[in-house]
Design brief:
alpha+beta; two-stranded antiparallel sheet; about 375 residues; about 25% helix
Length: about 375
Amino acid sequence: MHRADHHPSRRAFLDATGAMMAVGLTAGCTPDSAQPGRHAPAAAAAPTRVAATGRHQAGITLPQPAQGNLLAVVADLGAAVAPGPLLAELGQAISALAAGTDPRLLGLPPGDLTVTVGVGTRLVRTAGASLPGAADLPRFSRERIAPRARGGDLLIQICASDPLLLPVVAAALLDQAGDRVHERWRQSARRGTNVPLGNGLTAPRNPLGFIDGIVGPHTATEQQRDLWLAGPPAVAGGTLAVLRRMELDLPRFAALSLADQEAVFGRRRASGVPLSGGPVGSGPDLGAKTPDGRYLVPADAHVRRANPAVVGAGLMLRRSYSTDEPAPGLLFISFQNDLRTFTATLTHMDTADALLRFTTTTASATFLILPGFDRQHPLGSRLFA
């Protein structure tokens, strides 16, 4: 869903939103629901509101579990645009949108809306060439990426349980930025149904049918070690995000037998349990073998090639979202406090991971997710004083 050349005019957006709302109202008034004596189904409980301010930006570990819908917008800043004032304005707009006080919400309740903002490598280097987030991602195999789908100055990640909020909030923030930003591309995506993993944790299924995101920095100790940046002060409380959009060869994967599909991942499809056995939340026993000497977890299985202990890297907080435009696939986002966690993992996967045979990456970027903000400390103010 490339929007590289332009984004819709405000009038066109309002017209389209009005049409969508009209369709929704019409669809909700079916003959059955309108008949006297019929009991309308009970309204679902409103999702809990998520505060926009704090030490960390919302939309990373809060809420938990993550909302079901996401819109990622990647844009560039004009050459003469100072990032500090723009980011401060965006932070104020995000606070108003999350609080439900911005009229650009068009009457929609914000619910559990979160907006997470990151800045790309070019902007980070203007603040300091040695800062976390200043390094570009290397090229990897199985990439087919147009120039405008690689990199970018600004990431706006919008998440909500209500999918109607996503384009409305994006339009409000792009309206706030005006001609200071130029959109590169955007991607709408959604998460699968959450599956309980034990210990209060859940994870969704990915488009290939397997539970995704089982391993990650789930505890506060793990997140302090592997997720949040501790310094320097300008970035403390932030994190690094990697954004990768992939096309999936679903027909070819579906043609495999269940046993072969499970061998690709190294886990049981139904339960997520490692092929070596044990609880779903436990790491696989990579040394376990069959009586005839074969590894229970194949040498090219995804859980082996991406295993942090094998790679020698930290944990990533991974989010996978299903996409159907521009092609059926996956929007992958990982958060980590060291870019090497991602690059070393993908480099190790690149040589022999069976899962990569079914993927083609079509967009890629890395961003410094700015620390949290409040009224005294506007968004981005510690990095762009």
